[in-house]
Amino acid sequence: MKKSILNGLLVLAGVATALSASAGNIDSAQPLLMAHAGHAKAEHGHVAHNAAAFAGAKVSDTISVSNCWIRAIPLPAPSAGYFLIKNGGAKEAKLVGAASATYGMVMLHQTTHEGGMSRMSEVPEIVIPAGGELLFKPGGYHAMLEKPAKAPEVGSKVGMDFLFGNGEKASAECEVKPANTKAH
Ligand SMILES: [Cu+2]
């Protein structure tokens, strides 16, 4: 999987360079393109949570997900989702998975920046401290939305469920925003 991501990054580096010559908002576009690099073949090694894990989970009283939005990306490319997780509980919360009826597979990813390059990696769990919150945003943590069943329309809402290590879940309605939306 690492190899396929690297190959994708090499390919996308060329795309990003071409875009930077023609597009003004490369700051928002480039991380997205990078985020998508290498995912076409990333079928193996991801942490999968099946529908049963979500169905059996209790809705959390203390953990909530809000401000969720995703990019409208044409089929069949994957997209990314961003949101705010608030943990009002006395214990740390660990996000371990996400799912959406609109996407065949959702993975937890982190984009990091090193030496002028963006790269992303899958993260098995993401900790939200007790009484704290964590913002998933472009260039940082995000939900990678793979295998879209249909292309979501700008302005529509896509439901997403979030599974935590304590067996609880939270849900959010994610607003579909134009592909070039910047972080906010
Ligand atoms: Cu990603």
Describe this structure in words.
- It comes from Parapusillimonas granuli.
- Pfam families: PCuAC (PF04314).
- Residues 1-23 form the signal peptide.
- Keywords: Signal.
- This is Copper chaperone PCu(A)C.
- The protein is α+β, with helices and mostly antiparallel strands.
- The protein has one domain (47-177): PCu(A)C copper chaperone (Immunoglobulin-like).
- 20% of the residues lie in helices and 42% in strands.
- It is built from three helices and eleven strands, in the order αααβββββββββββ.
- The chain has helices at residues 2-22, 26-36, 51-55, and strands at 58-59, 63-71, 79-87, 93-99, 103-114, 117-122, 126-128, 133-135, 141-148, 157-164, 168-177.
- Strands 1, 2, 3, 4, 5, 6, 7, 8, 9, 10 and 11 form an eleven-stranded mixed beta sheet that branches.
- A hairpin with a 7-residue loop joins β2 (63-71) and β3.
- Mean pLDDT is 80; it is low at 1-44.
- The structure holds copper (II) ion.
CATH topology group: Immunoglobulin-like
Spans of at least 5 consecutive residues with low confidence? 1-44
Could you say which overall geometry the principal axes of the C-alpha atoms support? globular
Number of structural units classed as domains: 1
Total helices: the number is: 3
* Count of extended strands: 11
Bound molecules: copper (II) ion
SSE order, one letter for each helix or strand: HHHEEEEEEEEEEE
CATH superfamily: PCu(A)C copper chaperone
- How far apart the termini lie comes to 31 Å
> For the report, how would you describe the main beta sheet?
11 strands, mixed
Mean pLDDT: 80
Helix percent band: 10-25%
Integer-rounded radius of gyration: 16 Å
Q: Tell me what the CATH architecture is.
A: Sandwich
Structural class: alpha+beta
